[in-house]
DNA sequence: GTTGATTTGTTCATTTTCTGAACTTAGTGT
DNA sequence: ACACTAAGTTCAGAAAATGAACAAATCAAC
């Protein structure tokens, strides 16, 4: 389907997916084409069902009609390999989840491909239009993925080394498949479906048992030279600090991840199983809880401040599943960011907090497929 | 001149400037064009004097002829406002310096524009071909420059605030002018003329009285949302450390800049005026000198390690003017990088040291003009 | 040597894509 | 009702890219 589009058509689709609904004249200017050329391209895309007319904007002269991507011109499946059972969702081009189910997690890529293929019919059952226009599968996993978004170079969690997962799934299911690291997938989903749509450069910091991070730079996901951009979790924050499972000492991961916070609490004899518990203890004046949250928050804030200093992003989006960011932890994080950023910049970089639901990873996975559908492999 | 090129021609020029000499067939594949189209575009550019044939590569079949940019198809002037007197150079598209002179530094942008305009005739005097093909002026300065490379948003050194320097010079001299931050200019010059030509993502760390840093990401200079990407000097490296002139505490700048190293030496009663002096003292066993170099080196190494973790660049290029990197300081920096980078990556990111001469800034400035000539303002 | 294989690069008729200019359409302001 | 404005369309002609056939320059093999 995407292959049938001409290069101008694909460029247009990309511009709209980045800038939102635009009038034909605006699009012509953005692409540097004449109104005449634009007219034809838009007509073709509307006939193909890719675009549709939305609101009419009244100004002086003839009103302009905004064109937007038709949300139901393509559907995507997203699977998260971060949970067991693995969630599997079906969504449209707007990221709206249409169907949801789960499949057993496995470490064998062939078993995964099999489970996905077997799961597809029931996922698509009630949605014949999606069945017809299913345009890609996306898979999110914890680990390193190469720049073709096809091979998992390494994953500790799944115990993988150079696994061509995308190809395996593609061959078994017959559907275009792309894989991506979890944090990077969330960044793409925020850019495509979420609150970072209009921002060209931003970073996502995902806070969970581990700490993930990914960057969008100049409108593109930046993966780094070895696919390792955003490995903020293993920045040294407390030189000479506690040993980390990575082999170094004092990594951010050893102080600020939910796992670390819980472990520190346990070590201090606190009966806490979640961030909320610790926050509660801190609010009642428990010194150990306060100390732990302070330490974790300062470390995370410092790391984010360093990120801001180094990359000057237009937004920091902190996503977290557990607890809330309104307590001591969040306050300390914000404070630490403020005090460690060049005063000239302090407060200039918006920090947005987003509490995410159980669909984040699967939706992120689907967004990878959507991204490849919209932008395509060739970025000419 | 550049405006006369068609969009395909400009694309081709960009590809060659990024990838070096290529055969017509290779270029056709890279641009996704047919050999037929390529043939015509290449012929036109050769006729225009922009490209020329270089070596012939023999393989099986008809040998291929590599085309490269004609180094003398355009000339550029570069001026560094970092020194007094300000160096002013004339160079070709390869970055080869053809003429060199200097002009008095001033804080008044109009005086600068005047000095540049007055200096041009004598700079171009012995080079009539350059006079004819002078395609741009570049200016490097210490401070923040906006993304149009036209306005200096802020410069402490020059005491400027929102100065439209490029426009002022352009209007006075009649020549296309662009300005850029010093570290970013060096990064561009390394990408265009230097040793980072074939690397898509890399960072330059420039070590002098202050510490500068700039990133190339996916083949493009990344300036950051407020033009502040690369402000590594004000990363907090020693939390709660010495106060910095920026208003925070423990910035990298307060420990690892040459200025800081010299000040710390003075404070310790060492009679040192240069890095070499301190290195010498350290080599003779002076405890204070060793301590200072250790502290400075560890801090810089840690900052670079953080940069590697966050951005995973394909190369770190450390440029420095003073002293050498073979002594204790360099050793400690390298060691600190190694120990603070994810073990999986240790040694994976090449660290290249480059001792630079007095022309760096001016050549960097010229490269900004060259970059705008090659890539153009519109990156469509 | 001569022949065949191989790959680069050119030519040219044809097709695709884009433009410029005139025109239609759908409003606003008076 | 009238001009005025800007969006979007139409269509002939210009520009750019393609495909296929071909010329050119080498290697490799007999």
UniProtKB/TrEMBL annotation, chains A, B:
This is Mlc transcriptional repressor of MalT (The transcriptional activator of maltose regulon) and manXYZ operon. Belongs to the ROK (NagC/XylR) family. InterPro entries: ATPase_NBD, ROK, WH-like_DNA-bd_sf, WH_DNA-bd_sf. It comes from the Bacteria. It comes from Neorhizobium galegae bv. officinalis.
């Amino acid at each position: 389907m995407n292959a049938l589009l001409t290069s101008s058509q694909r460029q247009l689709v990309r511009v709209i997916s980045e800038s939102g609904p635009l009038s034909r004249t605006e699009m012509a200017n953005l692409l540097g084409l004449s109104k005449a050329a634009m007219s034809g391209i838009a007509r073709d895309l509307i006939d193909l069902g890719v675009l549709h007319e939305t609101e009419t904007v009244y100004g002086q002269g003839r009103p302009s009609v905004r064109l937007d991507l038709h949300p139901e011109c393509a559907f995507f499946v997203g699977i998260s390999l971060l949970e067991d059972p693995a969630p599997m969702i079906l969504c449209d081009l707007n990221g709206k989840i249409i169907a949801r189910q789960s499949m057993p997690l496995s470490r064998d890529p062939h078993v995964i491909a099999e489970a996905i293929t077997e799961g597809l019919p029931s996922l698509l059952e009630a949605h014949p239009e999606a069945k017809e226009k299913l345009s890609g599968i996306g898979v999110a996993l914890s680990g390193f993925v190469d720049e073709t978004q096809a091979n998992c170079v390494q994953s500790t969690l799944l115990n993988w080394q150079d696994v061509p997962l995308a190809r395996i799934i593609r061959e078994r299911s017959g559907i275009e498949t792309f894989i991506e690291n979890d944090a990077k997938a969330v960044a793409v989903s925020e850019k495509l479906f979420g609150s970072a749509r209009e921002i060209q450069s931003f970073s996502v910091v995902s806070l969970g048992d581990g700490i993930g991070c990914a960057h969008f730079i100049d409108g593109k996901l930046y993966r780094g030279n070895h696919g390792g951009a955003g490995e903020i979790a293993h920045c040294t924050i407390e030189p000479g600090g506690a040993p980390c499972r990575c082999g170094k000492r004092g990594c951010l991961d050893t102080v600020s991840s939910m796992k670390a916070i819980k472990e520190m609490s346990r070590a201090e004899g606190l009966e806490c199983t979640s961030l909320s518990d610790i926050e509660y203890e801190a609010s009642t004046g428990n010194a150990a809880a306060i100390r732990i949250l302070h330490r974790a928050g300062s470390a995370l804030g410092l790391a984010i401040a360093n990120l801001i200093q180094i990359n000057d992003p237009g937004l920091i989006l902190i996503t977290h599943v557990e607890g809330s960011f309104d307590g001591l932890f969040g306050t300390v994080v914000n404070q630490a960011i403020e005090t460690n950023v060049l005063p000239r910049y302090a407060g200039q970089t918006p920090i947005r907090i987003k509490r995410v639901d159980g669909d984040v990873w699967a939706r992120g996975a689907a967004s990878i497929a959507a991204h490849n559908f919209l932008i395509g492999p060739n970025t000419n």
